[in-house]
Amino acid sequence: MQTDNSKVSVINIAKRLLVFCAGQFILACGVVLAIKASLGASPTTGIPNVLYNILLDRGITRIGLGTCTTAIYCVYILVQFLILRKDFKLRMLLEIVVSFIFGYFVTMGQNILAFVPAPENYFIRIVYLVISIPIMSLGIAVYVIPQISPAPAEGVTAAMSQKTGWPIPKCLLIFDVVIVGIGSLISILYFHSLVGIREGTIICAFTLGPAMRPMASLVTEPLLKFCGLQTRRQAAIEEISVGAYHEGKTIITVDWEFGSGGDLLARDLAAAIGAKVYSNDELVGMEITESGLPERFVTEHEKLMRHSAMYDYATYAYKIQQTLDPLEQLYAAQVSVIRKLAASEDCAVIFGHCGNYILRDDPNCFRLFIHAATDIRVERAKERHNVDSSGARLAIGATDHSRAKYHHDFTGEMWGQARYYDLTISTTAFSKENSLALVEDAIERWRASRKDSKTA
């Protein structure tokens, strides 16, 4: 038995190494293509690129870009050691191996892409750079999946965060600015102009994150399965322990389209069946306590997904560090809070917060979705929120889009689709009183069917 487990372990390690090297190779090819554009590559490869150009200018060709990259990456490891000192761990020396692997692949990438001409036309240079960005993003998305080791530049960022207590995105931004500044200074002192670090370096810094998002969505699931791993978020959620579910409970999760009157119907339902209400106000307060995140962050983000360039840059920083970003921390807290409520309450109505997905395997959970025709929703929104028709339609579109996006990004399911609920009801077709009566009747029948299934 031990032999079989050992074989599985060795195979999984081999698969992880294969995926890691594949990611490093793809990244290296992207870097080489960006450097061919002569507009600068990513910030972490800026200094090696400047040194490489200096060597070429002096006629030294035996030291290639790959060797320069390895040398500077080893300097990054030394910086990491100087920052951490006694907190430097032996496992961090693995970054030396990563440096040589990546340097080797950069050299290999140069040889493979030697047939690609270096363009003189500025427009073609931009085309090269644009093509290189998704390639580099794909490489990063792939090499972080096996969770083997961060690259030396990411190691410095983590060391800065550990010592200062600053968030990782802030440390990454500082590190990028510093190394771009150093590379620019070296270039100006030698060439009296910017060579090796240019506008492409800044473009790469702020577009790799957004470009990495779709790449990661394509490759993460199949490669995790191939490696026999799970995401950090999945691992964090699986660690949440809430005890066994007890029979006889009634936990109702409610989602609704904006303007459908779903929140009012949910409160009336809770009053009718004697359930405790957990609306947004109660849940947010509990999530703040559970996550340890700042109150302002939770209140601003618990319903939304931010897609600004700065947010993607921040998310990219966490992913390359192989840690949960704040929104993932918030979702893990959300899971913990809702599971604990379902385990502790005998009868409760939980508003939104992906409750239908989080409690999908709980036999005590009844999942309800409320919707209505657009014109009805517009009229309700105008009345309740004191806006005109245009404002009401904008609020409906923005709110529903935010809810759907957040739900899909964290659950993979389509918010509002009937197959993910036990009952969907239209408040267009039924009055408030009839809607309540229908939901109450459905819940009673659901309770009865559970009892019948246990006695059968």
Q: Major sheet: size, sense and barrel closure?
A: 5 strands, parallel
Radius of gyration: 27 Å
> Strand order within the widest sheet?
2-3-1-4-5
* Overall strand count: 5
Query: Order of helices and strands, N to C?
Result: HHHHHHHHHEHEHHHHEHEHHEH
Distance between the termini: 41 Å
Strand percentage lies at 5-15%
The helix-and-strand class reads mainly alpha
Number of helices: 18
List the helices and strands and how they pair.
Blueprint: H1 2-36, H2 46-57, H3 65-84, H4 94-112, H5 122-143, H6 152-164, H7 168-191, H8 199-227, H9 232-238, E1 250-256, H10 262-273, E2 276-278, H11 280-291, H12 295-301, H13 309-320, H14 326-344, E3 347-351, H15 355-358, E4 365-371, H16 374-385, H17 389-411, E5 423-426, H18 432-455
Parallel strand pairs: 1-3, 1-4, 2-3, 4-5
Could you describe the 3D structure shown?
With 456 residues, the chain is mainly alpha-helical. It is 67% helix and 6% strand. The protein folds into two domains: 2-229, no CATH class; 238-455, P-loop containing nucleotide triphosphate hydrolases (Rossmann fold), CATH 3.40.50.300. The protein has helices spanning 2-36, 46-57, 65-84, 94-112, 122-143, 152-164, 168-191, 199-227, 232-238, 262-273, 280-291, 295-301, 309-320, 326-344, 355-358, 374-385, 389-411, 432-455, and strands spanning 250-256, 276-278, 347-351, 365-371, 423-426. Strands 2-3-1-4-5 form a five-stranded parallel β-sheet, with helices on both faces. The longest helix has 35 residues, at 2-36. It is elongated, with a radius of gyration of 27 Å.
